[in-house]
Amino acid sequence: IPEAVGEAGVLVPVGDRDALAAGLARILDDSALRARLVAAGHRQVAYFSWRRCADGLLALYQDAAASRRCG
Asked: What is the three-state SS of the chain?
């Protein structure tokens, strides 16, 4: 889910418990990293608003309707 996380998290390989533990330790031990992740999270959340979701769904329906009329 890198596209959902963006720069707002520390990504680790799926199923790699050691990498997960190391990532969590980095976040807990590094206050500057935590602050950067929090700030990035506040920016990232704008991509997942209900308004943006509704606008995207409406555009999808409009494209589908237009292609049906043309095709």
From this structure: CHHHHCCCCCCCCCCCHHHHHHHHHHHHHCHHHHHHHHHHHHHHHHHHCHHHHHHHHHHHHHHHHHHHHHC
Q: What pTM does this model have?
A: 0.67
- Angular region, 60: left φ>0, alpha ψ -120 to 50, beta rest: alpha
- State how far the Cα of 52 lies from the Cα of 58, in Å rounded to an integer: 10
Structure tokens, 57: 């769904």
Do residues 6 and 44 touch, judged by C-beta distance below 8 A?
yes
Taking only the tens place, the pLDDT of each residue in 16-60 is 999 999 999 999 999 999 999 999 999 998 888 889 889 999 999
| CA–CA distance, 37 with 7 (Å, rounded to integer) | 7
